[in-house]
# Entry
Amino acid sequence: MPDVRLPTVLRTHSGGAAVVKADGETVADVLASLEATYPGLAGQLRTPEGNAHRFVNVYVDDDDVRYLDGLATKVAADSEVSILPAVAGG
Amino acid sequence: MPEPLVLDRDVYLQLVAHCYDGLPFEACGLLAIDPASGHVVGCYPTDNEAASARVYTVPSGAILRADRDAEGRSLVLGGVFHSHTHTTAYPSPTDVDQAPDPGWRYVIVGLGEGVPVVRSYRIVDGNVAEEPVVVRECTAQGGVSIPEQSSRL
# Structure
């Protein structure tokens, strides 16, 4: 099962855990698995259309999925999926 | 009185230097907090992906590397700093709109007043609350020193 690294802002929904386990062979599956395990994450990761929220960046290991296959990017059982906040301002 | 933001001396110097190094653009970086004390004991200066004097973006890859590094040191990413090159060290509407985490500290280094002005805020549901900044003099034993080569992401 891949590990998923959560940003601090979402750890309130995982009982404080920074890294959790999730099921799935694609990023979309992993996000769905997370939302099933931690219902508080529903709506925090994906838009109603099923895309990643603009304020969330998703990496598989060291790669930004925007430069791979997006949420269809394959996830190996020993991969680490990282959900990162978009940090920006003016 | 809100709880102060306590910065280790080396972190304070590093973030102010990084903001000057970034001119004429805004500079930015991430802050590592010791969860036991709540003190900022590490600093990850990053590139400003926006390369702009008006806005900043911390590269997402740098966030990932900083998060992994902080975890390896039993620290947490607990804030972000950036410079305002010509305006005061107060959150802009863009800063408030885009603040990702109500638990984070938002440090702004104002460079428009001749001397650097370091101020810190919490931003919760669009509300800005300033908190005092305290610089802690510490020894190598008292703080975590993040080596230059790993801290510049």
In short: Chain B touches chain A at residues 28, 30, 50, 54-58, 60-61, 63-64, 67, 71, 76-78, 80, 82, 91-95, 98-104, 106 (CB under 8 Å). The first strand of chain B starts at residue 5 and ends at 8.
